[in-house]
Design brief:
This protein is of the alpha/beta class. It has nine helices and eight strands. The chain has an eight-stranded mixed beta sheet with strand order 1-2-4-3-5-6-7-8, sandwiched between helices. Helix 1 crosses helix 7 and helix 4 packs across helix 5. The termini are far apart. The mean pLDDT is 93.
Length: 303
Amino acid sequence: MSGGTEQRLQRGLGIARVVSAYLPLGLANWLIRQGARRVKLPPGVERAEVEADGVRCVWLLPPNAPADRVLLYLHGGGFVFGLSAQHLAMVAELTLRLGIRALLPDYRLAPHHPWPAALEDCLTVYRWLLRQGYPAQRIVVAGDSAGGNLTITLAMALRDAGEPLPAALACLSPVGDLSSSEERGRTFVDPVLHPRAIRRFNRSYIDGHDARHPLISPVFGDWHGLPPLLIHAGENEFLREDAERMARAAQQAGAEVELAIYPRMWHVWQLNLELPQARDSLEKIAAFLRQYLEAERATTARD
């Protein structure tokens, strides 16, 4: 059953792969916005729009979610594509497993807003949550692909600024190194990421800055003192190497990190909710994040 689903989905991936490489970004984002408006969320999950100090965001509110805990979810899309229907549906499923609300920033996009615009928007939203009364130890952060990059760089930027860090982090197929991705994209046939798309994404986001800057390519950053981290990547994606390098960097810095490579899976397969591997990954991500929120709850109760 699973194998047939995988084969069917992989046939569609080839079309999406070419579209991401050649479709004009303006048209692509118009289509993404239309889809996001019409997305059907799981029963019971409510959606609400909010502005967090000028950054447009979407709340996803599962039934009976506590008001004092939140998942900040940073969507992927190569830093050039906006918040999609697939992301909303996936994060809605994750909120049901976690049992807490999620806030998704619709951050500014390259090439019109290159680095550090997306990171600045994510920092703005995190700080807004703190001012709304969410303690840092009751915030968890997760993201996929470019959003995985932003998850790590947000934590690095907060640590460097001496600001309170979230309780835990989770990354799905994260982008770790924009300095060498173009070369790897020419030699590895990724079922989702087209080499031309990779070059377009990277050039748009970097925009002449040093690609090895740690807040662009976090594999070159200082991983000391970061929150506990979970990384999931697929066996058949070229960003598997980024995931492995990020996990090693975190481990060498003494950070708590778990890495799981899913056999046969492609880039951010969790967006395909019909896959058992997607459901398994989301369940494990929820369990990982939940344990740190519950640890904080237990500490609060003892105090």
